[in-house]
Specification:
By secondary structure, the protein is mainly alpha-helical. The chain folds into two domains: about 30-125, no CATH class; about 135-175. Helix content is about 80%, strand content about 5%. The chain contains seven helices and two strands; from the N terminus they run αααααααββ. The chain has a two-stranded antiparallel sheet with strand order 1-2. Strand 1 (about 180) and strand 2 form a beta hairpin. Helix 2 runs parallel beside helix 6 and helix 6 (about 110-125) packs across helix 7 (about 125-175). The longest helix has about 50 residues, at about 125-175. It starts with a helix and ends with a strand.
Length: about 190
Amino acid sequence: MIRRLAAVGLLFMFLCATGFAQGIALDPTPPSRAQVLSLLAAMGVRQNVENSLRSAQARVKASAQAAFKKKYPNADAASVKKLDAVFDSTPLFGFEDISETVIAVYQKHLSAADVQAGIDFYRSDAGQRLVSLLPVIIRETNENSQQVVQQKLAAYSEEITRKLEAFQQEMEAKAPSGSERPNESGAGQKK
């Protein structure tokens, strides 16, 4: 009898837990703006965007300096400093300028429970380790994959060329002797 009650109790707890989990998974409540911002901060998105924008502005500034020095090779330091002032006085936009668009996308696709689970993960030790190592992982993956991708593309190109040549020979063999065949420009000509 005690075993039956324990089994029924365990079954009841399991059903309640399953229902609760399904309730969370099916909860369509969108996340709040604050929740999304918290997730983005935990994921390092804000910092990465800000770093990328600063880097982009620095590249634009360096490019402008190089073009200026090429056009005005005898420009004095004061002129170069004035050019720098133009860029320094006109900062590129920041994360805040695009945040509402980003937040809306997260709110459209994720529930409040999804976002909270993400916050919990990215604030955990494992999540923080992932955030800190992700740039290194992406860089190394790109570097290591580049050669493999180039080899695969070369092999693909060779195979496609071989198959197209075989197809073209097959088509030429089927063509009647007096028919038109395309020349290199693609226009038909009599044989």
